[in-house]
Structure formats: structure tokens, C-alpha cells
Amino acid sequence: MAKQQVPVLEGWFTIDDRPHLLGTRCKSCGTYYFPKQSVFCKNPACNGETFEEVKLSRTGKVWSFTNACYQPPEPYVSPDPFEPYTIVAVELEKEKMVVMGQAVEGVNVSDLKAGLEMELVLETLFEDEESEKLTWKWKPVA
Known about the structure:
By secondary structure, the protein is an all-beta fold. It has one domain.
């Protein structure tokens, strides 16, 4: 029997065929936030304190990238033995904000360049006895 797929961080992204990160938008000035903002707008020109939850763009362009050659500390769960992975900073298409995340398995720093089109996908970060823990990752657009 297949394990249930659950988000590693509840409320941070949708789990469907076309996943989206979940952020907020200030109702006063329109500034977007990820992760969600709920107390006050961090835009210095705004005094807003109300936000609406929004689905953020699924696509964007590589802004920067690097590799992670060290094993992150807990609570991050990494494979044993640890394998380096690629981290990508993507500027979201509509919001023009930069969101970081891992690249999908098999994408290395040598495969990336600034301005490359990327899309949001879900991959299993790790499994436990009950479920597959999913997280968002970035994949080059074919």
C-alpha cells in the first residue's frame, strides 16, 4: 500500500498536480511575502496590518545558485550517507520576489545559469513509517 504524502511544512505549499507556494499579500500596499506575514507589513512605506493568503507563481528565473556540501543540522533530515545538493534562488514571475529552495535531484550547479526558467515541483524529502514527507523544489523548465 502506498504511503500518504504529506507536506514537511504544513501550510507552506499546496499538494496537487500543479503545486504552489502559499504566501501572503499586504492588503494596503500589495507587497508579497513568503513565508507568510501576519503581523505588520515590512514595507517601510506602508503601515498595513492585514494580509490575504495567496498562491504564489509556480515559475520564475534563476537569480542565484550554489551547492550545499555540508550536512545541515537537525531538524533537517538528510540521506545517510549525506549527498551534496544544489540550492537555487528563483525570482518569482509575477511577484518579483526571490524564493530559495533545493533543485530537483540530478540538477547540479553546472546545469544552471542566471535567468534560466524554473518551475516549482514537489519531491519527497524523506519517508517515515507512516508517510512520505514532501517539500518544494525547483526544476528547469524543459
